[in-house]
Design a protein that fits this description.
Layout lengths: L5 H15 L6 H8 L3 H11 L55 H9 L4 H27 L6 E13 L6 E15 H51 L12 H18 L12
Antiparallel strand pairs: 1-2
Length: about 280
């Protein structure tokens, strides 16, 4: 009797897990994730009677249920918790953080964070280049793995107590276990998607830094032009005329021409001819 494939149980567990969440399961997509053919997955589904398995539903309304619509505590029927309420907070990512509430380590991190536009962009660029390198390393590792090798993606291990009284042991008897696994190819696709996002952000930051550099160069040129205009206006420098000489040189040349004219003209205004 041939050995039962691990992919068969993994595909079944993934199918049941998605159905229990109220999701529509695409057999083609599931077959690609599990690294098997579409027809093989259909045969497994029919032989193991996946749709006949009773799926335990979660307490409360199921996805799409509108029974509580318009009720007092229904979603959307009130403005929600008061401002500052932290009942639903799980981490600090979405909190309104006040500086006096930070720890010493967080205050030090905030103090060392660059606030200038160029420094902030350069800091983010360095972090993104590290992420890019790590993703590329992971992709290279998965490319070396066999095509039929699977990697654990998620695990649901449901256990019930065994024994009574002082002999009771919590979680000793396994009731059901559901495993979700990915092939190396599926993981490479996810990593490449993340890589494209990181590289796109890197390109955006590089363009922003180039725009800042161009603006700084234009500012230097404009300042130089302003300095020259101020020096011309105050007479600190002589402005060249269109013929190539300075204003003082032009004035001296005009004065010389007038003197020569006076020396060659007579008292009556007639021109003095040279004696033979």
């Amino acid at each position: 009797m041939p050995k039962r494939s691990n992919k068969r149980d993994s595909a079944k567990a993934e199918y049941i897990a998605r159905k229990s969440k109220g999701e529509d399961v695409s057999l083609k997509e599931l077959a690609e994730q599990q690294g098997v053919s579409y027809q093989t997955l259909r045969n497994w589904k029919k032989a193991d009677k996946w749709d006949d398995i009773k799926i335990r539903k979660k307490r409360g309304g199921q996805p799409g249920n509108t029974n509580s619509k318009g009720k007092k505590n229904a979603k959307g029927s009130h403005d929600g918790a008061p401002i500052g309420n932290k009942n639903a907070e799980k981490d600090g990512a979405y909190s309104t953080i006040f500086f006096d509430m930070l720890t010493d380590a967080e205050k030090e991190l905030a103090a060392r964070t660059p606030t200038g536009s160029r420094a902030a962009l350069e800091n983010e660029l360095q972090i993104l280049k590290v992420r890019e390198h790590r993703i590329l390393e992971k992709i290279a590792l998965y490319e070396k793995e066999p095509e039929d090798k699977l990697f654990l993606n998620s695990l649901v291990d449901m256990r019930v107590p065994r024994g009574r009284g002082s002999l009771k042991v919590d979680g000793a008897s396994q009731q059901m276990g559901m495993y979700s696994k990915d092939s190396a190819f599926a993981r490479i696709l996810k990593l490449e998607e993340a890589l494209y996002k990181v590289q796109g952000r890197i390109a955006t930051i590089v363009n922003s830094l180039k725009a800042i550099e161009d603006a700084e160069k234009r500012l230097v040129i404009e300042n130089k032009k302003l300095e020259i205009m101020e020096m011309r206006a105050t007479g600190a420098i002589e402005v060249p005329d269109p013929d190539g000489g300075t204003d003082s040189e032009t004035a001296a040349a005009d004065l010389t021409d007038e003197t020569q004219d006076d020396m060659t003209d007579g008292e009556d205004g007639s021109h003095i001819e040279d004696e033979e």
